[in-house]
Amino acid sequence: MAVNAPDSPIQAEVIFVIEATSANSAYINELKTNYIVPTLEYFHGGALEEGVGSGSVYGIVTYLAADCHPGLPVSTYGPFTCPQTVVDTVDKLQFIGGHAESRACVTEALTTALACLEELGRSDIPLHVILICCSPPYSANAGGLVPPGAPATVEQAARLVGERGAQLSVAAAKKLPAFLALYENAGGELHAAQQRNYAKDPRHLVLLRGYSLKERPPSPAPPPAPDTQPDVYGQNRAAVPQPRVPPAPFPRAAVGQVRSNWLAPPRQPHYANSALLTQLAQPSNPPPPTQATMQRMSLAQAQAQAQAQAQAQAQVQAQVQAGPSSGVFAGGAQRTYIWSGLLEWMEKGKTPGDQQKVIKHLPCQVSANSKDIEPELKVDTWPSKLLMQLMPKHLISNIGGQYLKDSKSVLFHLQQNEALDALTKVMVNGFAGCVHFSPMSSPPQCDIKVLILLYTPDKKAYLGFIPNNQASFVDRLRKVIQQQKLNKQLPTPANPTPGQPATMTGI
């Protein structure tokens, strides 16, 4: 039995965030021996064995310094169910770059770690993010524009870790004030953590949260290293050639591009079907790249982007299986019309300055794969009119992957007219429909409260997703909308564009 390991294995999701700069190469062996391996033994419940797991899932996120640009600062590996595989992967990592930098891209790394946890989709077991590092973080996201939905500063990224329910621990080769602040911003009790000494070397900083390692007697420690390194990307940087690996973007827009070695998740049913998440993360109608952008883009980057887009489209096509005009048969799979009625939503008036809301109606039919009809959908309890609220897609994606995975899907067939043209124009500009199922006047009541309606330009089809846990989804959606209203981020300009959707709040 490993020292300080619990009597039985602990199921958890653990993401190791490892600085892969050449600076950390001097420390990685001792950090691995003293902190990574004991952490794996703690969750495994004992000594590590080849090919043996205990129910926990592990992943690795590595990150570089800003001098990696125009390469990608973050890479992912996993997920792994065997802890020994984590050790083997760490042994094979390349530690490169950072020669002209004194900080590293922690903001991007923490954001990517959260995306990995969300991709795994578990919310019923502890979530851990363990930072293994030696260089302080840049204060902000490195390299150009911050991807939509991503935290812009390291403080925001740390707070987001805590808000998502993950516990951040730090094992650093140097005692730097920046790491103390990072731990505290993520929700850690700094004073309590500093009362326990897990550091093998008095120069190390080890702050744990949610688990423990072997405690060591206090020893005289050197004063904290001064955190006076420049916080500007590329300051005093000489050109240092670095080996380039063709990038493969992690499939989440909020993360930006990362070099992905992230495999298909382990075979658990809760990891299946993320077509809804893929659609929410993809721009509905992305603008064409400018000539300057194309000139800057390497062939490898272009190929990787094309591959990622093809994979996203394939996921959606597998769900859609048919366009609006393809009848009840599509690609050999039989579809059946299960409902017909009216779809209603509201838009602003077409005259500039007109605040009058205009009610729009569209005759509509809904079809589904024959295997999905009864008893799951219970269409006999659907109302004759569905009320739709238009809202930015990013609001729905902010709800969280655990509420959106494994959604049932149906296809909406809308009557072609001027109202449909206006709706499509709104949808391709970043909006989604939250379709409400009004209560029936008499029992039985419909189990479905809301449905998410998205437009897929590649198939020219309207695809509806029905979240499984309706009560939790509605509650979470209400909180997201309330938070956005508090932050004044809802799109409610003083002089709305004519025909702009009127966002409703009656969730």
From TrEMBL:
<dbReference type="GO" id="GO:0045944">
    <property type="term" value="P:positive regulation of transcription by RNA polymerase II"/>
</dbReference>
<dbReference type="Pfam" id="PF11232">
    <property type="entry name" value="Med25"/>
</dbReference>
<dbReference type="GO" id="GO:0016592">
    <property type="term" value="C:mediator complex"/>
</dbReference>
<dbReference type="Pfam" id="PF11265">
    <property type="entry name" value="Med25_VWA"/>
</dbReference>
<keyword id="KW-0804">Transcription</keyword>
<feature type="region of interest" description="Disordered">
    <location>
        <begin position="485"/>
        <end position="507"/>
    </location>
</feature>
<dbReference type="InterPro" id="IPR038196">
    <property type="entry name" value="Med25_PTOV_sf"/>
</dbReference>
<keyword id="KW-0539">Nucleus</keyword>
<feature type="compositionally biased region" description="Pro residues">
    <location>
        <begin position="218"/>
        <end position="227"/>
    </location>
</feature>
<keyword id="KW-0805">Transcription regulation</keyword>
<feature type="domain" description="Mediator complex subunit Med25 PTOV">
    <location>
        <begin position="334"/>
        <end position="485"/>
    </location>
</feature>
<dbReference type="GO" id="GO:0005667">
    <property type="term" value="C:transcription regulator complex"/>
</dbReference>
<dbReference type="InterPro" id="IPR021394">
    <property type="entry name" value="Med25_PTOV"/>
</dbReference>
<keyword id="KW-0010">Activator</keyword>
<comment type="similarity">
    <text>Belongs to the Mediator complex subunit 25 family.</text>
</comment>
<protein>
    <recommendedName>
        <fullName>Mediator of RNA polymerase II transcription subunit 25</fullName>
    </recommendedName>
</protein>
<dbReference type="InterPro" id="IPR021419">
    <property type="entry name" value="Mediator_Med25_VWA"/>
</dbReference>
<feature type="domain" description="Mediator of RNA polymerase II transcription subunit 25 von Willebrand factor type A">
    <location>
        <begin position="10"/>
        <end position="211"/>
    </location>
</feature>
<feature type="region of interest" description="Disordered">
    <location>
        <begin position="213"/>
        <end position="252"/>
    </location>
</feature>
